[in-house]
Specification:
about 130 residues; mainly alpha; Arc Repressor Mutant, subunit A; three-stranded antiparallel β-sheet; 3 strands; elongated
């Protein structure tokens, strides 16, 4: 069990929520063997300070990872990597990230006055152009 220095690179302009970026990068580092079961992660407060983000952002990321059984927080001991996530857990995290991103996009488009049918049509057109590329 080691206390690893977690290296995360956040993109504040990507449109992807910060907590999702944290979840995705921890999951990726675990899948790539950078993080291993038993490794200790920084406390929520320490990571929030290091990344200069709100405490609640990191708490949300850790909560998602905990619910997916990727990490375990033990009162008085710290937060540890539990195991390499199953394919189901990894797919659930991917789905949650896509859902969050889609919800933000749709809400913003609706706020700007676009109708649901206009949004659907634009998404279809963009997907079609991506598939042809």
């Amino acid at each position: 069990m080691t206390n690893k220095r977690l290296t995360l690179h956040l993109d504040f302009h990507s449109g992807l929520p910060i907590y999702t970026q944290v979840v995705n990068q921890i999951q990726s580092q675990l899948a790539n063997g950078i993080l291993k079961p038993g490794d200790q992660l920084p406390t929520v407060r320490a990571l929030a300070e290091e990344l200069r983000v709100n405490f609640n952002t990191i708490a949300r990321a850790y909560r998602i990872l905990d619910e997916a059984r990727i990490i375990s927080t033990q009162q008085g001991r710290g937060t540890f990597i539990v195991e390499i996530p199953s394919a189901d857990a990894a797919e659930k995290l991917r789905h949650e990230a896509l859902s969050e991103l889609t919800e933000r996009f749709v809400n913003e488009a609706l706020r700007l006055g676009f109708l649901g049918r206009e949004i659907r049509q634009m998404v279809r057109e963009i997907l079609k152009s991506q598939e042809e590329a």
